[in-house]
Amino acid sequence: DFPLLHRASFAVETAAPELLLAVLLCGSLYMPPTDSALSARNLFDLAEELAFRRLAVGLAAAERADGGGGEGPVSCPPRLYETLQAALIVHALQSTMRSSTARRRNRTVRLPALVSAVRVLGLAKTKHAVADLMMMAPEARWAQFVQAETRIRISTWTLLSDCQQSGVFHCPQLMTTLEMTGSLPCLPELWNAASHSELDQVICASGRDCLVRGASIRVAVETLMAENWDGPEAFPVKPLTLPDLQVLVFSIHSSMRNARFASILPAAAPVVARAIDRWQELWDLAARGLTAEELSRRGLVRHSGELCWLARVMLDVSMSEDAERSSAYLQGVAHDSLEELHAFLRVYCSLDD
């Protein structure tokens, strides 16, 4: 729902081979089920191995070039961003496979590698330095904006991948909203600008504040869970988009699961419940201008309202006395199949109906 790759600067001739392969295989999922499209899935393991080997090598080289690592984040060479993007795409592709071995490897080996890279490179702290950007020449401003936004999107994609794995397989999350102190992904019209002149036109039309968004993921989540609430109009993220709300509802889910895993959900439940209510209020306002057909064309973000419903159901069930007896999903931690989640949904969707 917010693209990971910057289309205007992506070049087949110069892109990293692992990124080209990842993009090609991702495209095969959207093709008609021809023999060639289906056979492309045989390359998923190869693409995974290539991307993550190059990520390990590139990260080690960056740390050596930075003096062996020490205080503060390691400088990231441009090529390493492409390797990280490739690894994220392949990680998402492998999550669609039916192999329990691939799922377990995705969760226990590949995801920790992604989270570690985000932390070593300090990506989750990245903010657009608006004052500095506006003093640059147009071409330099565009290049700097794209690089910072790429860092922001890589860290946000990693957080969402972690949330998704945690939710589907009921396992502790690796990343936290606490460390997401950088900027939110920018507005689509900025990311989709085809040139430096088009980017400047968008900034001129919308004002330089369009680069800032007002708050980080951490601040947004803390606002949803705070004791005081001044209503949607005082929410710090402006303008608030549907993809923003998708990130926030995933974060609410992760906060609820983390509280349950730490055996403090009874104390945290009122905080989570009011965050759900406030999120729903924001969603109703943000989505009210869209028809059902328009919302259906918005990718995975269209399911955010359903995720909010699911958060409410999971909170209620988790707080019940027979939570673990009534749900195989809640009984264990770190499942290797989707069956436990599917069984939970079958039971509680039917009860809700």
UniProtKB/TrEMBL annotation:
Subcellular location(s) of the protein: Nucleus
GO-annotated molecular function: DNA-binding transcription factor activity, RNA polymerase II-specific; RNA polymerase II cis-regulatory region sequence-specific DNA binding; zinc ion binding
Major subcellular location class: nucleus
Location of the Xylanolytic transcriptional activator regulatory domain: 2-202
Swiss-Prot/TrEMBL keywords: Metal-binding, Nucleus, Repeat, Zinc, Zinc-finger
GO cellular component terms attached to this protein's record: chromatin; nucleus
GO biological process: DNA-templated transcription
Domain of life: Eukaryota
A Pfam family hit: Fungal_trans
Name the record gives this protein: Xylanolytic transcriptional activator regulatory domain-containing protein
Lineage, highest ranks first: Eukaryota, Fungi, Dikarya, Ascomycota, Pezizomycotina
